[in-house]
Amino acid sequence: MTLVEITQDGKVLTTELSAAPEADLELGPDADLDAVAESLASAKQVAVRFPAFSDGRGYSIARRLRNQYGYRGRLLAVGDVLVDQVHLMARVGFDAFLLKEGQKPEKAAQSLARYQSVYQASADGQRPVWELRRRNKAA
Amino acid sequence: MYRYDEFDAAIVRTRVEEFRDQVERRVSGELTEEQFRPLRLMNGVYLQLHAYMLRVAVPYGELSSTQMRKLAHIARTYDKGYGHFTTRQNIQFNWPTLVDIPKILDELAEVEMHAIQTSGNCIRNVTSDPYAGVAGDEVDDPRPWAEILRQWSTFHPEFTYLPRKFKIAISGGAEDRAAVRFHDIGLRVVRGEGGDIGFRVWVGGGMGRTPRVGREVRSFVPAADLMSYLEAILRVYNLYGRRDNKYKARIKILVDELGLARFIDEVEAEWQKSRASATPLPEEEIARIRAYFAPPPLASLQDNPAELAAARKADPAFDLWIKTNVFSHKVPGYAAVTVSLKPIGGIPGDVTADQMDMIADLADRFSQGQLRATKEQNLVLPYVRQDQLAALWRALDMQNLATANRGLVSDMIACPGLDYCALANARSIPIAQEISNRFADLRRQHDIGSLSLNISGCINACGHHHVGNIGILGVDKRGEEAYQLVLGGDAGEGDAAIGQITGPGFSAEGIVDATEKAVAVYLANRRDADESFIETYRRIGMAPFKEALYDAR
Amino acid sequence: MTTQIVTANRLHDGLVVFRVGESWTQSLSEAQTYTPEEAAALVARIEAEEKTQVVGVYAVEIDDAKVPTKGRERIRALGPTVRPDISKQVEA
Prior knowledge:
The complex is a heterotrimer. Chain A is of the alpha/beta class. Chain A is built from five helices and six strands. The longest helix of chain A is centred in the middle third of the chain and has 11 residues, at 57-67. The radius of gyration of chain A is 15 Å and the shape is globular. The N and C termini of chain A lie far apart (47 Å). The relative contact order of chain A is 0.17. The model of chain A has no long low-confidence stretch (mean pLDDT 95). In chain B, 38% of the residues lie in helices and 17% in strands. In chain B, a hairpin with a 5-residue loop joins β4 and β5 (91-93). In chain B, strands 1-2-5-4-13 form a five-stranded antiparallel sheet. In chain B, strands 3-14-15-12-11 form a five-stranded antiparallel sheet. Chain B has a five-stranded mixed sheet with strand order 6-7-8-9-10. Chain B has 18 helices and 20 strands. Among the domains of chain B are: 134-290, Sulfite Reductase Hemoprotein, domain 1; 413-551, Sulfite Reductase Hemoprotein, domain 1 (2-Layer Sandwich), CATH 3.30.413.10. The longest helix of chain B has 23 residues, at 6-28. Chain C is an alpha+beta fold. Chain C has one domain. Chain C has helices at residues 36-49, 71-78; strands at residues 3-10, 16-20, 23-25, 54-62. Chain C is globular and about 35 Å long. Chain C starts with a strand and ends in a 14-residue tail after the last helix. The mean pLDDT of chain C is 94. The interface between A and B is large, with 40 and 42 residues.
């Protein structure tokens, strides 16, 4: 299986693994985050499972983990993780992706690099174009 | 109107490249149809009954003449020479090939257009009042807010795989002309106690198999909080909306199941937690976007010029058209003109490539190069000088675009129905054509007066039958097309109502007779010519209609 | 005993096609006919083998004149009834 990671300095790394990486905590799409808040405090690696790529609950769970629970460790997407979704996942706070069998890692890297500009503030720290426009005007 | 800056342009170009790559991977087999389907839908590509269909976004209905010419070119080059304007102010092409669609998207990008999020389980194209910036009753022009919502919702990373589609409408006038209470989120621009701009918010309206009138969740959201508040609503929906049954997946069902009070509690709690990390809406950005919607340079004129009065007197057909197809403008001496896409016996909303080119030319000549698409499937020229109305009317009439029927019985909303749609149970267009022919006499239509007649070919209600004063729903009755009649619907916020079914259904021929009977009951019962169909219906109720429709059978 | 034809939409252009031999045709009159059992087996085989050729493969019942018995399938096979100028409705 293939693990795609975004490093601290924004590089994309691909690793072939023989077994899924161990997570301190694995959350399903209906996870109650208040109930696991304590274990989150000490966790270094949290996995969020996508039972189907069309089930978008994991995006809101990630956003809450990053923006409301202050989770700073590695956030790993597992399950039906496809290359056409990883850039959205990165924006809500995921920094590691265990790709579904058969997905091409180079396509995942392409997806992560594709959009240079975004309209929303989210959990990835990327500045929305509304801030960039203000800066352009000031310059 | 809004113009792309380098960021907007780059985002749309990037999207075209992304989609081109996805199409190539589908054709090569790298993507399965199951994986590709949501990707193509999010870019407006359906597989319909006969072919692919491409739905192009017309954000909040605003179009330039240049964009209209491009649509004509696309219709001619990649389709069969026509397009179809929809109830969500978009345009659909019925025959593009999949492999041509990236090229079509390139062409659209040249004129700052796209097909982003015109389908799929994401935030759809935002709709608004076709008379925005024109109507005299506006609290504020809704277009800058709609454009802010367009940008905010474009590739929103958290809300791209929602339980189901999500539609937002916004209106800014004292009268709601955007049916805000029939959307997942409805917004009206209002002023707070201190005179500051904000929004009144309804959630969970919609049609389909479970029609609901939107429920108010907040009477005032300050402008600066617009996105943080909407993100709170969407997060609650994304996490708790049902995903086990697509027929119960819309936000209206979540509001039903939680109850309004608990739903509001959840949203408020989420808002308090997330407000700080949500997308901010800086004052400068509001001002930057607002500047694009400043009115064009207009002449200083008087209302009702002598030329207009003389032309009305000289030609009764022109006078009739002025009565229905002209909307009064907030600027003296100007008018907003409805270009009717409902010729008698025609296909509601269909326009040929030649007509599109002609309309673009007329927009340049008479309306500052600007156009609007309406949810009633017509077009509007928003800046016409009153002393040029007669010249415009003559030019429109030559293209069969001057039917004097806006808001009348033949100004029908009809979905494509079984003639095009893979989901339909019955045809809608032939019924619309039959009814239009039955009421062909425009004098009679003007006598009947204001009446919305909406036709859907299945329970999904794309033809808005639930909110027609008269609604028609096509069903499949043991392999035969059959039609139910619905009365009393109203799309406007103040009087929002879902129509009631009259009783047993009718055959294709029978429904046309039934429609005529319902109109006859109204005419026989109205107090005077000023009492509209819906007013009479509200006063006398369903019983007299039922009696006329069924007792004689 | 009902007679069936096998239909799909072509992947690259979306147009309606009908099975004939190992190939596809856009003409209803050229479509090959099958027993329901043959059609079911054929649909399963095409679904497995022709994923990059066609989408939405299924069998349609036809009458003696080789016209689909269901209204929806007639419209699908022949084109929009409201646009005889661009449809194949005249053939019927």
